[in-house]
Queue: 2 jobs
Job 1
Amino acid sequence: MITGKYPNLRLRRNRKESWSRRLTQESTLSPNDFILPIFLIDGSNKKESISTMPGVYRYSINRISQVIDRAIKIGIPMVALFPKTKNSLKNEIGSESLNENNLVCKAITEIKKKYKNKIGIMCDVALDPYTSHGHDGLIRSNQIINDDTIEVLINQSLLQAEIGCDVLAPSDMMDGRIGKIRKALDKSGYQNVQILSYAAKYASSFYGPFRDAVGSKGSLKGDKKTYQMDFRNSDEAMREVALDIKEGADMVMVKPGMPYLDIIKSVKEKFKIPVFAYQVSGEYSLISNAIQKKIVNNDIVVESLMAFKRAGANAIVSYYADRIDKILK
Ligand code: PBG
């Protein structure tokens, strides 16, 4: 691999000026590489800050055009919608997930009406924003039950597809859900709805601020270790990805992002399919709070994002996406 040798070979020669460094760069970032998560709340004219995530807000439906306008202007290809459901609407079985007037459905309708196909819409398929216990699936005798959960996820997928969601993103980690959702979508005429599987999703403490943002933190009983992956494992991630591809996933997600760059790289090398990285809430919070406290400077953001591209990610879900034009300048 290494050809040549000092003093004939001096790697610093290519680094000597900015123009030369730009010419020899291996990875690049542009707004096309980003998916912007948007938190939704009920009510009207609301833009609520989230204390653990400086610079990130929850928007009421009538205020989301403010964010979408910006996203389209800077060239972000897709947004991901996450609802903060009122506690009074949560129950054991997450039935609000199947309400055609829930926050996510209302937001999809608004965005499609106003923007047509100028920007893609991605929606999570999982029950945690809707269950009183904060888990992604149904619970029976203290267990998250796989197959019955899938039946609800199928209905949630069909509903979101019908309202106009472009990309369904099952983030629940139940076994076999991709195949069953794909089959149900096809049977109902939604062959063109894409599936982005959260295939390698780890049980992670990096999700803390997100659970704050969607209001599932206080309610979550126990942890998610019986369905999300064990962070000691990487072979298992390859098995998860292989299964989801066989079942019909168009794209796969690795989540969290930065602590799992090795997984992103292996998935890309082994499977040659679109791989997305999720720079999750905890990563965002650590970086943003450290910048605010002047422990590190702003450049850390680009460095953290470029790492995903270097590892082989096609795109990145990031809470920085709405400011990425300024960040990349
Ligand atoms: C829910 C879901 C989670 C995230 C995205 N979808 C949290 C969880 O699994 O508990 C986390 C995103 C983030 O931390 O930014 N299935």
Note: The radius of gyration is 20 Å.
Job 2
Amino acid sequence: MPSLSQLVVGLKQSGIREIMNLAIGMPDVIRLEVGEPLFSTPAHIVEAAGRAAREGYTKYTANAGLLTLRELIARRFNQDYGLPVTAENVVVTVGGVGAVSGAVRAVVDPGDEVLIPDPGWPNYEMIVRCAGARVRRYPLLPENGFLPDPALIDRLIGQRTRALIINSPSNPLGTVFDEDLVRELVELAGRRDIFLIADEVYEKIVFEGRHHTALAFDRDGVVIGVFSASKTYAMTGWRLGYAIASQPVIAQMAKLQEAYVSCAPSVSQKAAEAALSGPQDCVEEMRRTYRENRDLAVATLDEYGIRYQRPAGAFYLWVDVGCEDSHAFARELLQTHRVAVAPGTTFGPSGREFVRVSLAAQAADIREGLVRLARVVKG
Ligand code: PLP
């Protein structure tokens, strides 16, 4: 067989996937490793999509997506954040993944560098490497509440740095950046003339305070905001996300879609229109459930004196299990105690002593899974 791409062969397999595959083959496992909403897509969205398919929305759309959807997204940004976004500032992508990868590809050349969080969503590293660029991690330290430190990031920006990726609300930390921090990060990117890719796919899952979009502070056209229907409307399988940025950036990202995906699925675009224009109480209901799960989870860990980062958003809990190797810990927890969690090392070197627990699970499973985990930690 001819040799395969060294770049692709060299990509790491996801540690979450490994635990998931092991868990699937075992009986009676409490599954707290996956980052998938607990809910099914609301019925009115599914019905609208079925109707759209019957009406003929089964064909390619423009690379940037349906104009009707892009206009709806723009209107939502006017309403939610008071921002003068127009359809020209929107590209509809194949999930938030498509928006992050499109953004990275649009701004790097081979050998350039992209700053990503440690710990951070594992796909960032994969995406940056696939674009032929190099990854540089900036630390999110416990002593700083696991938040980015703009002064420290400033020192990590080099000649070849083209972009900084930030993520609020954060996977895996559940941290939510306040307004000043978001503003500072946008100003830093502007001052150092790099792009700021702001992954805001969990924008609607915030428990305390509110979400601050980086787009609100963009004076220099450096922000590329990443959003998705996946988490907000429990639509992971529809593969529908979008990016918002200045018109020249969006034009390049839309052109690039031709090379990889042509466009987002047309029926999913119609489903997203129904999601955005329909009742929003489903969003509130999901948020309330994740918050209740958060409260139950932290109360359980407090009972046992286990340390964790209290999530203010998203649906993950970053738990300090004080182990030498969180990958070995997660395997052991699964094999001996039948609880699947995501090993912290998957999210970066700083995750060695941590695991990520998903709060998108049934309350009883969260309680029982954390009790078992706590007993292992406390020996
Ligand atoms: N960004 C973060 C931080 C995520 O956790 C995810 C999914 O888990 C995504 C982006 C992309 O999700 P999707 O491609 O389903 O929109």
Note: The chain is about 45% helix and 15% strand.
